Amino acid sequence: MESLKLESLIQQCLELIQTVGLFIREQQERVVSDDIITKQQNSFVTFVDKEAEVRLIKGLRQLLPEATFITEEDTVENEDSELAWIVDPLDGTTNFLYGIPIYSISVALKVGDKIALGIVHAIHQNEFFYAWDKAGAFLNKKPIVVNRRPALIDAVVGTGFPYDKNKRMEEPYRILATLLAKVRGLRRLGSAAMDLAYVASGRLDAYYEFNLNAWDVAAGGKIVQEAQGKVSDFADSPEWIWGKSILAANPELHGHLLEVIRSV
User: Which fold has domain 3-144?
Assistant: First the structure.
């Protein structure tokens, strides 16, 4: 898709996402126990997730009727195609439920095997991080770039942990323990999309995590790339959208972190 068309599409998406974000923000104070569905221990879906996804799909379908959808909540049939929206209607659901103001909407457009545009809306802060092909990355219309700090000892690194406690936890814990001794600090925000947006804007120096899905990383990863950062999975593959792991940082710091992850 041509850059001009992508820029126009971004603007239309921002309007739609802002509307859905307002709905989510209004609902945050109204969440009660009867509105929570427990999928598995410590992993929740609320009625807000599903309603937000329905609203996003309806609006995005009007913008690009030919596009399919890859979504978290399965309110529409998931189908990968040449042109597909990748949508997480509420990333950071547990934060949302507990009133912790770190949750977001993540929307990306995949064209072929590449992400053409990405938007992360930090709802509580009313911040919009976005990027499209070869145009750079932006936060509320202002250009952003990743931090250039190359040394691990100076880096503040974001991460996360699997909600499914049946997954193997030894490797994440070993990496965490190793990095604690090598970096300035570690942070666990609870929203992968916002972690990536924070790397793109320089609020975090890097971010890594296991066991993620395409809707967790597609938009944020694109924003990091357009902010002059490097994104890969733990195998250093560019196929990070589907890799189930992610590492994002400036190119030099990315290499140092990858060495640590591979050595543990």
Answer: Fructose-1,6-Bisphosphatase; Chain A, domain 1 (3.30.540)
Better-scored residue on pLDDT, 37 or 201:
201
How many C-beta neighbours within 10 Å does residue 94 have?
A: 15
Write down the pTM of the prediction: 0.93
* Residue 48: exposure state from Cβ atoms within 10 A (0-12, 13-18, ≥19): buried
Cβ distance 85 to 70 under 8 Å? yes
CATH architecture of 152-263: 3-Layer(aba) Sandwich (3.40)
Once rounded to an integer, what is the mean pLDDT over residues 158-169? 77
Contacts 24+ apart (CB under 8 A), 2-10: 3/132, 3/133, 3/134, 3/135, 6/116, 6/117, 6/132, 6/133, 6/135, 7/132, 7/135, 9/63, 9/64, 9/109, 9/117, 9/132, 10/117, 10/119, 10/130, 10/132
Pairing assessment for the beta strands 127-132 and 114-122 based on DSSP bridges: antiparallel
Does residue 166 carry a pLDDT above 70?
A: no
Tokens, residue 141: 């219309």
